[in-house]
Amino acid sequence: MATAADVGDRMAAQVLLARVAATHHRLALIWADGGYTGSLVEHCLAALALVLAIVRRSDDMRGFVVLPKRWIVERLFAHLMRSRRLARDHERRTVSVEAMILWSMTMVMSRRRAGPHPARA
Questions:
Q1: For residues 113, 114, 115 and 116, what is the CA-based torsion angle, rounded to 10 degrees?
Q2: Which of 56, 76, 97 is the last residue in one of the domains?
Q3: Residues 6+ away with beta carbon under 8 Å from 73
Q4: Three-state SS for 101?
Q5: Does one domain contain both 34 and 12?
Q6: Final residue before a domain boundary, out of 56, 73, 97
Q7: Which pLDDT tens digit goes with each residue over 77-100?
Q8: ∠77-4-34 over CA atoms, to 5°?
Q9: Is residue 26 scored above 90 in pLDDT?
Q10: Which residue segment(s) compose the domain that 85 sits in?
Q11: Which of 10, 3, 18 is nearest to 36 (CA)?
């Protein structure tokens, strides 16, 4: 889900999680980073019956440290940034961005489905 720049992450997360919960009934646990703490955790549990687990960075960590489950999101962002139009935020409409994300993920999934590329002679 793409939103306008003036929509906060926590507000957008409420809308997104409501859509996801309505579509995927077996979903029970969602991981999020520290930016989604606060009332969103209680909202997920009370309104959507979802557990929102916050993956936190410890205060004693220095430098780059791979956080549990966070690398999955970062890998997704890396796949999306391979599409040139998604490398910059210049779209006027959010539906255009969502279409480009679907296109980019379709390319990733079809490459995975096709398997390894045969060696060229």
A1: -150
A2: 56
A3: 33
A4: helix
A5: yes
A6: 56
A7: 888 888 777 777 777 888 888 888
A8: 50
A9: yes
A10: 60-111
A11: 10
Answer yes or no: do 45 and 4 share one domain: yes
Cα 8 to Cα 2, 12, 15, 49, 84: the distances in Å are: 11, 6, 11, 22, 25
Strand intervals (E) in the chain = 29-33, 51-55
Residue that the structure tokens 């490398």 belong to:
87
Residue 117 lies in a domain: no
Residue 67 has pLDDT above 80, yes or no: no
User: What token pair was written down for 16?
Assistant: 């997104």
Residues 32 and 65 occupy one common structural domain: no
The residue among 42 and 66 whose pLDDT is bigger is 42
**116 assigned to some structural domain:** no
pTM of the model: 0.69
Tokens, residue 57: 């960075």
Q: d(Cα 55, Cα 94) in Å, to the nearest integer?
A: 28
Q: Are residues 64 and 100 in the same domain?
A: yes
81 and 47 share a domain? Answer: no
Q: Judge whether 56 and 34 are in contact, CB under 8 Å.
A: yes
| Largest pairwise CA distance in the chain | 60
